[in-house]
Design a protein that fits this description.
By secondary structure, the chain is mostly beta strands. It contains 1 helix and 7 strands. It has a 5-stranded mixed beta sheet. A two-stranded antiparallel sheet has the order 3-4.
């Protein structure tokens, strides 16, 4: 659930549902975009739910940011509400 100023808690990725690639660092983004990684444009998916570029979500205790071409990038720990 989303509270004011806090990202939505989405839980763990379900392997049977659509989730965009999750990268550990910003530096990996360039490599992924240059490779054959299948990516979308304009949206990231997490367990079949679409999120716009620039949105943040919490997956467990990890803060994820939806970046260009639909790739999640790990930004650090989620802060408790």
């Amino acid at each position: 659930m989303k509270t004011e100023g806090h990202p939505l808690q989405v839980g763990a990725p379900d392997p049977e549902r659509r989730t965009s690639p999750i990268l550990d660092r910003d530096s990996e983004t360039e490599e992924a975009l240059a490779g054959n990684l299948e990516v979308e444009t304009g949206v990231c998916y997490f367990n079949d739910q679409a999120f716009g570029i620039g949105e943040y979500v919490c997956s467990g205790n990890e803060l994820l940011h939806c970046e260009e071409r639909g790739i999640w990038v790990l930004k650090g720990p989620c802060r408790p509400v």
